[in-house]
Amino acid sequence: MATIRYNAGASLRPPSSRFRSPTCILSFFRPTKSKSARAKSDLLSLISDQDRGLKTQSDPSKRAEIISAIDALEFLGEGSVTTGKSLSATWRMLWTTEKEQLFIIKNAGLFGTKAGDVLQVIDVEEMRLNNVITFPPTGVFFVRSTIEPEPPQRVNFKFTSAVLRSSDREIPLPPFGQGWFESVYLDDDIRVAKDIRGDYLVVERAPYSWTE
């Protein structure tokens, strides 16, 4: 009969080259600056030639790629608080799926002008949001809203008034709705948001501050 011998001094732990502690395993999934930088770079590269989303409207595969990149950033930003003071800024649109904004951008030429910067101007302390489309050199359409942050990432808003302004006239328009958006990723450069209608928005901190 064979004899099985045990070495009382031997460790039951697997060889160190193959063993990974729970902490090491969890750290693989934990967001890091390098992972965020890579995911952010991937997203910005994907949207760089999309004309703020106009080209994406006719390219479902590109849209899917971009949304996948957004999902990656959302995962890295999961649990972070994005409703604080860092949300206050003049944000300039880089890309969106919002049809109304894209319609105005695309068809501004029908009115003898062209769309300039499209902005979200947020002031958390004053609980205020302005959605702005500029028409250089002096035209602007903006919608005023009140906001109510709901940490960690949601902001509820309610439109209060809208204005179409040119160099020599101002046309007030009635308010038209309410909703919410979630800033699923926010850093010193960009913000990525999803809203109540399932639309996506990628914005950057503008190099200037917009005021009425």
Automatic annotation (TrEMBL):
InterPro entries: PAP, PAP/fibrillin_dom. Keywords: Plastid, Transit peptide. GO terms for cellular component: plastid. The keyword Plastid applies. Pfam families: PAP_fibrillin (PF04755). The keyword Mitochondrion does not apply. Residues 38-203 form the Plastid lipid-associated protein/fibrillin conserved domain. This is Plastid-lipid associated protein PAP / fibrillin family protein. It comes from Rhynchospora pubera.
